Amino acid sequence: MIIVHHLENSRSLRILWLLEELGLDYDIRLYRRDPQTMAAPDSLKAIHPLGKAPIISDGELVIAESGAIIEYLLDRYDDGRLRPGSGQPLLDYRYWLHFAEGSLMPLLVMKLIFTRMPENPMPFFVRPVARGLSSKVQEIFLTPRLLPQLALINDTLAQRPWFTGEQLSGADIQMSFPLQAASSRADLSDYPHIGRFLSRVSEQPAYQRALARGGKLTPLG
Q1: Are residues 166 and 128 part of one domain?
Q2: Taking the CB of the first residue and of the last residue of the chain, which one, N or C, has fewer CB atoms within 10 A?
Q3: pLDDT 10s digits, 147-202
Q4: Interatomic CA distance for residues 84 and 75, integer angstroms
Q5: d(CA 131, CA 111)
Q6: Cβ neighbours of residue 135 under 8 Å, at least 6 residues apart?
Q7: Domain that holds residue 41
């Protein structure tokens, strides 16, 4: 039996969605965030030294990192429906699978950090400095890097409903979380195809079943 060590309101919802798409039986071990810091509990470190979700156990195997888990589950349990077999679709699958956490998510995490920076407790005379630093980092570094990525994603989804073509794949499942996070942290009205993609995601029966089992997703923002 596969066990998903599921941190509430986190990337691990993607793994529940994939398991539902694959029609696999699994158990959930739910971990609650600290209500003050929103950090994962230390008990996750008993499963994996870094204590970060998602983590799955499958028999004696313990696997962490969303992309590694997706690849493992597709290698072992997929019949070819959720990963293209060859050619450009397979290359697109690999690109977007790694793009999600390698390119897009780091910028979104930095945006969250610098957006929240002026709100953190600090001496009153430091707050204007923090506000100015936050604004400049976003203006000079984050926004010029984030906008081209959003444009690329939007242009890709203008050509096809899913990242590899006409069929849902593991790459779409991987990309769902950063795009949900982006939609909670930025105005995406200039990127209508991203919005349509997120609507398609929310309409998937397997995604709805994952939400029912794992709880509502509200990306921190």
Answers
A1: yes
A2: N
A3: 999 999 999 999 999 999 999 999 999 999 999 989 987 789 999 999 999 999 99
A4: 12
A5: 13
A6: none
A7: 2-82+209-214
**Rounded to whole angstroms, how far apart are CA atoms 172 and 96?**
8
Q: Closest Cα partner for 12 from 144, 36, 48, 37?
A: 48
SS3 content of the chain, % helix, strand, coil (to 5): 60, 10, 30
CATH number at residue 150: 1.20.1050.10
Share of the chain above pLDDT 70, in %: 85
Taking the C-alpha atoms of residue 32 and residue 8, their distance in angstroms, rounded to an integer, is: 6
Residues 101, 131, single domain; the answer is yes
Same domain, yes or no: 96 and 179: yes
3-state secondary structure of 173: helix
Enumerate residues 6+ apart whose C-beta is below 8 A from 150: 182, 186, 188, 191, 194
Contact 176, 204 (CB under 8 A): no
Residues 67 and 172 placed together within one structural domain of the fold: no
Which H or E run contains 31?
strand 26-31
- The 8-class DSSP code of residue 165 comes to B
The domain tally of the chain equals: 2
